[in-house]
Amino acid sequence: MPVNVYECMFLLDTAKVAGDVPAAAEKLHRILTKHQAEILASRPWDERRLAYPIGPHKKGLYYLTYFRVDGKKIRDIESDFKLNETILRTLILRVHPKLEETMLALARDENALALQAATAEASENGEGGEKVEEARPRRGRRSEAADKG
User: For 84, which DSSP code?
Assistant: First the structure.
């Protein structure tokens, strides 16, 4: 198989990371280098409350990594990630060759998350344009046609 660029988003246990993100990152990098992966970009993405609990965990640290490796080794890398107690979830995606440079530039930009958060906050406050009304009624609401008929 050819050598491809992969994006990996980790969800790390905040209790086990306990503020020592560089040590946790080193463990992740050791697993990747064990399988001859070249790490292209790696950084913490965001720490947030989970939409649903994963076991007893209600918070997690999202950690983003881009690496280049032979596609045959992905299965072994995933197996090693499953054995690591710090990692709650992992998602590995192959990056299309046309998007590699753009994705890596965004991953290396420390302000990318701040820009995303500012944009989301502006849209919540109504500063990012007009809010579009939903096309269908929400659950539990009767439609206007039912009110008239």
Answer: -
Indicate the number of domains in the chain.
1
Spatial contact of 84 and 31, defined as CB atoms under 8 Å apart: yes
Task: Check the CA dihedral 118-120-121-125 and report its sign.
Answer: positive
Q: Give the structural domain span for 3.
A: 1-69+79-97
Give strand pairing partners of 54: 57
pTM flag (> 0.85): no
Residue 48 neighbours by CB under 8 Å, 6+ apart: 59, 60, 62
Tens of pLDDT, residues 10-42: 999 998 888 788 999 999 999 999 999 999 989
CB 24 within 8 A of CB 86: yes
Angle between helices 74-83 and 21-34 (to 10 degrees): 140
Give CA–CA dist 121/125, Å, rounded: 6
Question: 29 burial class (0-12, 13-18, 19+ CB within 10 angstroms)?
Answer: middle
Domain assignment of residue 114, yes or no:
no
